[in-house]
């Protein structure tokens, strides 16, 4: 179980000028002291010398990976602009909210204070993502229904569906791809259908396997 008071520190300045090194050092020192006062154990410190308008920052990306890998619960920053500016800031806050990570700002003296517009934007982003997920699942269900109606029998391909001689999930049943393609399903619909039945496959992979199959026939 991770320590509920485990935290990381994120420091950022906008340029790589040597004069900014002092600012980074000051940020880290102040945040370490602040985290200690808040009774948090700092696992790691991440640093960037790059514009806040970009999300392609090594320190930021490393921090996001670290947070997910080690179930970090808290991030300490100097102020909200250190995370980012403009749209990148909202995207980062949205991701951290999904991970249930608390952002503590030294400038705010505690949890980051969002204005009414920021709060509304995060709620909208969460709502849009929820409906995107529902739409994606609906497309998969429709594809599965169409596939079954066109003769797709997943139980013949999966060992854990009653056929001990069937295929493993990781193997893609080319005969079913061919059958569904001939019955008019798009590559995207076929991929969604196969994923719904447990095959980790993309539209591009379905297309490639189908083309390889046709090339073998022609050869």
Description:
The chain has 219 residues and is an alpha/beta fold. It folds into two domains: 6-113, Resolvase, N-terminal catalytic domain (Rossmann fold, 3-Layer(aba) Sandwich), CATH 3.40.50; 131-218, no CATH class. The chain has helices spanning 19-37, 58-69, 80-83, 86-98, 116-149, 174-182, 187-196, 203-218, and strands at residues 6-13, 41-49, 74-77, 102-105, 110-111. The chain has a five-stranded mixed β-sheet with strand order 2-1-3-4-5, sandwiched between helices. The longest helix has 34 residues, at 116-149. It is elongated, with a radius of gyration of 24 Å. Mean pLDDT is 83; it is low at 157-170.
CATH architecture of the largest domain: 3-Layer(aba) Sandwich
Please tally the helical runs, counting DSSP H or I stretches of 4 or more residues. Answer: 8
Tell me the major beta sheet.
5 strands, mixed
What is the SS-derived class?
Answer: alpha/beta
The mean pLDDT is 83
CATH class of the largest domain: Alpha Beta
Gyration radius (Cα, Å) is 24 Å
**What percentage of the residues does DSSP assign to strands (E)?**
5-15%
Q: What is the overall silhouette?
A: elongated
Helix proportion range: 40-55%
**Corresponding CATH superfamily of the largest domain:** Resolvase, N-terminal catalytic domain
Chain-wise SSE layout:
Layout: E1 6-13, H1 19-37, E2 41-49, H2 58-69, E3 74-77, H3 80-83, H4 86-98, E4 102-105, E5 110-111, H5 116-149, H6 174-182, H7 187-196, H8 203-218
Parallel strand pairs: 1-2, 1-3, 3-4
Antiparallel strand pairs: 4-5
Helix pairs in contact: 4-5, 5-7, 7-8
């Amino acid at each position: 179980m991770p320590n509920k008071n485990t935290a990381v520190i994120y420091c950022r300045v906008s340029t790589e000028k040597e004069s900014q090194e002092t600012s980074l050092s000051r940020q880290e020192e102040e945040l370490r002291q602040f985290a200690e006062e808040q009774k948090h154990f700092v696992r790691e410190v991440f640093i960037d010398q790059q514009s806040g308008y970009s999300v392609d920052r090594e320190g930021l990306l490393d921090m996001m990976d670290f947070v997910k890998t080690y179930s970090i619960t808290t991030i300490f920053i100097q102020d909200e602009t250190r995370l980012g500016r403009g749209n990148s800031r909202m995207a980062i806050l949205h991701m951290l909210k999904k991970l249930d990570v608390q952002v503590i700002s030294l400038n705010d003296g505690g949890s980051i204070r969002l204005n009414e517009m920021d709060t509304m934007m995060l709620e909208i982003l969460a709502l849009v993502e929820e409906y995107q997920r529902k739409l994606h699942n609906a497309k998969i269900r429709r594809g599965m229904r169409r596939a079954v109606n066109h003769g797709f029998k997943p139980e013949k391909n999966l060992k854990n569906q009653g056929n001990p001689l069937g295929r493993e999930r990781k193997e893609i049943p080319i005969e079913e791809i061919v059958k569904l393609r001939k019955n008019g399903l798009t590559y995207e619909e076929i991929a969604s259908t196969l994923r719904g039945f447990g095959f980790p496959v993309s539209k591009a992979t379905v297309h490639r396997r189908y083309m390889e199959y046709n090339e073998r026939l022609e050869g």
